[in-house]
Design a protein that fits this description.
The chain is α+β, with helices and mostly antiparallel strands. Helix content is 21%, strand content 46%. Strands 1, 2, 3, 4, 5, 6, 7, 8, 9, 10, 11 and 12 form a twelve-stranded mixed beta sheet that branches.
Length: 154
């Protein structure tokens, strides 16, 4: 009986360790986070919509939306920063920074509203590797700050 209990408790320990490794591997996929939120904002990650708040992790493919009289500030692992104004929607189309087998790149799509982008290490190491995509324009961010606005609905 004692051997069985030790065996079961050992298995529980292994399961907890493996669960921790799963959580850590997801943390490695994190590309940035929400730094500040004013008003109502949401993050849509893998189809799940959650309220945005300071510390919310961001992943490649996420969509960030702001409501009326709202704003969001985001920081990314390469020290790039995006700030969104009211009634805005931005999707993080692609992001790679110091990943084996991928060139450093950052593409954010401004679907509506306003966005200010400040480049980080990606644009410093690969000029024009950071881009803001819009319905009719693509802006390359090369070691600078830019502001853009897109009207209409998403």
């Amino acid at each position: 009986m004692k051997v069985l209990i030790r065996h079961i408790s050992g298995m529980i320990g292994v399961i907890l360790i493996l669960a921790g490794l799963t959580i850590d591997s997801k943390a490695e996929d994190r590309i940035g986070m929400i730094k500040v939120v004013s008003g109502d904002a949401t993050v849509i990650s893998k189809g799940t919509e959650t309220p945005a708040k300071a510390g919310t992790p961001l992943f490649e493919g996420d969509i960030v939306r702001t409501g009326d009289n709202s704003a969001v500030g985001m920081t990314f692992s390469d020290n790039s920063r995006l700030s969104m104004g009211p009634k805005s929607e931005v999707s993080i189309e692609s992001y790679a920074y110091s990943r084996p087998g991928r060139k450093d790149s950052f593409d954010a799509r401004l679907k509506r509203g306003s966005l200010t982008a400040t480049s980080g290490q990606i644009a410093k190491s690969r000029p024009l590797a950071m881009r803001v995509l819009m319905p009719t324009t693509v802006l390359g961010v090369k070691g600078t700050t830019l502001a853009a606005r897109v009207g209409g609905d998403a």
